[in-house]
């Protein structure tokens, strides 16, 4: 049975109304993704957050009445709460209290599939919980049943800070090994001149749907936030025959917990190391402009803001004739379910690469099949013909500036 949830939020006077409403709607979606049912949302306008209770004491009585009226199991705050605020609100409301960050961590705990993903989530949970142990009380600090209490493998959180610190140290050590392995994989791909494309975007924009259609694979597709947590990489072929590796990444979101971004740093390195980005936007979402801003900001923080990128305004079929002015260039409007749209998008990727890469025109002997094969797979071949008069293949195409074959083509 779904837990009954009451959301509480403070709106600051200088805060944009549309952004505030967007954050509330997102919190409702997150609550439903975690398996709860939002019964009520209560907000208060304030100059600043109350240091003791988050909300003002005048609002307390209203919230208590709502907790009784709706038989609330869980109160979720739209902002991060300190140890003192958690303790004071728990004492007042007599129900479990969590904040937005704990809710997101809980969803990540449900979603993590790989060993690395589970370790990363547990690390983020431990680092988030450590400074707040005094606020939660021993019964709250143990991971058990209910939203905000789940952990990878139902791990029990002990209230002993030394135990948690030892566990944090152990996880970081184990993750460091995985990070080094991932770095080796990336180095090997670079050595093999594999062209790497990363699919990025706001959570639930349709990244996994696009990934599956591109790669004919079956990563998790759900109309839920953070459906994909563990990155997958597959090989694809562009219209010219050029081969590339494409990676599906975790969705971005505004106000992601700092501990979570830090924990998933190694996973997000896949984005930083990419040669090209496909930025997927749910063009039918009312807050799609703010979503684009959030993704751009996070890309800049990852030092990935200068990587060549195509913005994909996805879910065009849901627009119902509405006109949307694109914020980013270059761009395409499409539906990831339409093969014609995918083909046109891949052609657009090639067109962008032609503008960025060096053109070449080369003649190759028929017996040099290995070189012909490399050019077809590792460069954009626009024309390939066998000229009988000279008994050679004539190839025209485009090649990345720092590709090892550049030396041969310049000879």
Automatic annotation (TrEMBL):
One Pfam family, please name it.
GTP-bdg_N
The subcellular localization recorded is: Cytoplasm
Ordered alphabetically, the record's keywords are: Cytoplasm, GTP-binding, Magnesium, Metal-binding, Nucleotide-binding
List the signal peptide residues.
none
Q: Where is the Hflx-type G domain?
A: 195-357
- Segments forming a coiled coil: none
The record describes its quaternary structure and partners as: Monomer. Associates with the 50S ribosomal subunit.
Give the record's family classification: Belongs to the TRAFAC class OBG-HflX-like GTPase superfamily. HflX GTPase family.
User: What function is annotated for this protein?
Assistant: GTPase that associates with the 50S ribosomal subunit and may have a role during protein synthesis or ribosome biogenesis.
What is this protein's record name?
A: GTPase HflX
Organism in which the protein naturally occurs: Oceanobacillus kapialis
